[in-house]
Amino acid sequence: MNDPILPMPHSAGRRPEPGLHLVATPIGSARDITLRALDTLAGADVLAAEDTRTLRHLMEIHGIPVNGRLMIPYHDHNGEAARPRILGVLAEGKSVAYASEAGTPLIADPGLKLARVAMDAGYKVIAAPGASAVLTALTVAGLPTDRFFFAGFAPSTATARRSWLSELSAVRATVVIYESPKRTARTLSDLAEIFGASRQAAVCRELTKRFEETRRGTLAELAAHYAQGDPRGEVVLVIDRSDEVVVEAADVEAALRAALGGGARVKEAAAEIALKFGLAKRDVYQLALTLQEDEPPSEA
Fold first, then answer.
1. At what angle do helices 249-261 and 266-277 cross, to 10 degrees?
2. In this structure, are residues 188 and 203 in contact, taking their beta carbons and an 8 Å threshold?
3. Which intervals hold domain Tetrapyrrole methylase (predicted)?
4. Which residues lie below 8 Å from residue 167, measured CB to CB, with a gap of 6+?
């Protein structure tokens, strides 16, 4: 948010109604703030933010003074302590504006518990919608948008990531994943292997920022490109939906029997076959246990 812009007039005298206001903020360009968001930030009694420094800077860009108002940091590490403070403000009949570091609150953001406790306590929760990396990526990826699945951040460890991706591989919707630029190449390689090398996808980088880039192609092509070097900036991966695949129960059973007969342990066999057919590991594991129980005892 470093592009120079002139402050826009806002309704500083319009006090938001009492309650928790979830304010979407720009994911890159400061120009992407909405007029309603500016009004809410200008008039709220108390300001809460995942990063108060980022929010303060955004308000300075748009000419909104803090005017001595209380600013409460609210993030993953202080939620237990911060939520009672915010609930206390709401109990006084005041308005609280909560902003993520960037984008829409509650989307891969620590604000979920805050919103839930406010709702459970009977306070009004109001959304001031705006920028979202998920929707922005879907807009420029060139893939179907009538049905999509936001999967959040991919696990950082290789084993957990591959297991997680195997569960997503058969989703009948366009899949959206947030990823670190340092792990993008590895995740694309895993995606090409698990989802299929020919599956169409897009790597959306630095959305709405100065060096925004969207690279489209098959997973194999994208994996090969980013194997040459990590991208810079924030990354959103968008992967086309799977083709409908009919998995025959007999095929799964035969593959399990072969794996178990080859000496694999039940858990290992189930994980291998679940990955191969794009099935839930727990379901294949239960089938493997049943097959093992049905096996006749070997003769001495």
1. 140
2. yes
3. 20-223
4. 280, 281
Strand pairing class (148-153; 174-179) = parallel
What is the span of the domain harbouring residue 257?
A: 249-294
pTM for the whole structure: 0.77
The half-sphere exposure of 291 on its side-chain side, counting CA atoms within 13 A, is 23
Structure tokens at 69: 């108002």
pLDDT averaged per 10 residues, the chain (length 300): 53 80 96 96 97 97 96 96 97 97 93 96 97 97 95 94 91 94 96 95 96 97 96 95 74 86 85 78 87 62
The 10 Å Cβ neighbour count of residue 158 is 12
In a domain, 81, yes or no: yes
Whether the Cβ atoms of residue 192 and residue 220 lie closer than 8 Å to each other: yes
- Out of 96, 116, 131, pick the residue that ends a domain: 131
Residues 148 and 215 in one domain: yes
CA torsion, points 145, 151, 152, 156, in degrees to nearest 10? -130
Q: At 59, give phi and psi (nearest 5°).
A: -65, -35
Encoding tokens for residue 289?
A: 């246990």
Position 247: which residue type?
V
